[in-house]
Write a structure and sequence with these properties.
It is a single-pass membrane protein. This protein is of the alpha+beta class and about 325 residues long. The protein has three domains: about 15-55, no CATH class; about 65-260, OB fold (Dihydrolipoamide Acetyltransferase, E2P) (Beta Barrel); about 275-330, no CATH class. It has twelve helices and eight strands. The protein is elongated. The model is unreliable at about 265-320 (pLDDT under 50).
Length: about 325
């Protein structure tokens, strides 16, 4: 009995693509197909390995603290994580969870988020919310500002145990990371990816004011955020909500810090130029300022204004020549 031969199996599309690619490379490089069979899989494997390494370092690797963050992340990347504590009314600590729950954080074995203070030591990133300044709480014997507790409770209720995205802007001098922070909206808008800017929420509800420092002001990566921040502050001021509803003379957080000489006070040369960074000789008459900063000190003092107070120009005496002579004499001996 005559039968038809069985039909040929369909050609694998990947095999056809590979054969076409091999023929093209052989024509371009004048290499025999047998050599292409060795080189092409090696190149493909190396490219796949490099791609996986890049994806891990940029999207899946967990960074425990601010010092571990690569410099190229700033102004380019955002960190996704869970807020584990709120220490002040404008900063908090973030436990970095790359990939979120999709990568098993919070439910998969080995991906548990620590809760105790002992476990979190050295494992969280100190985040400073960009563009806003909230009333200062009591620290190191300094009294708290009016409405500081209300602002702290507001931020605690808003962020604690929530997942947020912090867009990295810069690292400040206190090892904190200045970030614009966003949280998902509630309901269907949040499911669609719409978010609230935390700084804008605080300004709208009168829990903070626009940051008024003279150095290192940040308002986020998006254009026009400073305008939105100032408009929200003016609206809250007009409605007299939060800090704008306080009775009596209002003292801003910046004025409070300047009065007590605390963090983030007005710009002074000693906060920018340090002895270690400059490598210069120490200057007599100005504690903590090196000889490299002496021209800056003289320029500021010559105008008669340091921290808003009139002072006489300091006497700058640099004993570089005498020290050099002493060192030279010791070498000769």
């Amino acid at each position: 009995m005559w039968t038809h031969p069985p039909p040929e199996p369909p050609e694998n599309p990947f095999t056809r693509i590979y054969q076409n690619l091999k023929a093209t490379l052989s024509d371009l490089t004048a290499l025999p197909p047998s050599t292409i069979d060795v080189i092409l899989p090696s190149i493909t494997t190396a490219a796949a390995a490099l791609t996986l390494v890049y994806a891990y370092r940029n999207h899946l690797k967990r960074y425990p603290d601010s010092n571990s963050l690569p410099p190229h992340f700033f102004r380019r990347k955002g960190l996704y994580g869970k807020v584990v504590s709120v220490g002040d009314a404008d900063n908090f600590r973030l436990y970095h969870t790359p990939g979120g729950r999709l990568m098993g954080w919070g439910w998969f074995p080995g991906r548990r988020i620590p809760e105790s203070r002992k476990e979190l030591k050295g494992q969280s990133i100190h985040v400073r919310i960009a563009g806003v300044d909230a009333p200062e709480c009591a620290h190191f014997g300094k009294p708290s500002q009016p409405h500081s507790l209300e602002s702290l409770n507001y931020l605690t209720a808003l962020l604690t145990t929530r997942y947020v995205r912090a867009h990295l802007l810069r690292r400040d001098q206190y090892e904190r990371v200045v970030c614009s922070v966003s949280i998902p909206r509630k309901g269907i808008l949040g499911a669609l990816g719409f978010k609230h800017d935390v700084g804008l929420l605080m300004l709208r509800d009168g829990m903070a004011q626009v940051y008024e420092g003279t150095y290192g002001i940040e308002f986020g990566r998006r254009q026009g955020m400073e305008t939105k921040y100032r408009a929200a502050e003016e609206d809250a001021r007009a409605r007299k909500v939060g800090i704008w509803g306080l009775k009596g003379a209002y003292e801003s957080p910046g004025q409070y810090k300047a009065r007590f000489g605390g963090k983030e006070g007005p710009f002074t040369p000693s906060t920018v130029v340090g002895d270690k960074a400059s490598g210069g000789e120490k200057v007599k008459g100005k504690r903590g300022v090196s000889s490299a900063a002496a021209p800056v000190v003289a320029a500021v003092a010559g105008e008669g204004k340091i921290r808003g107070r009139k002072r006489a120009a300091p006497v700058v005496v640099v004993r570089v020549a005498k020290r050099r002579k002493a060192v030279t004499g010791e070498k000769k001996k």
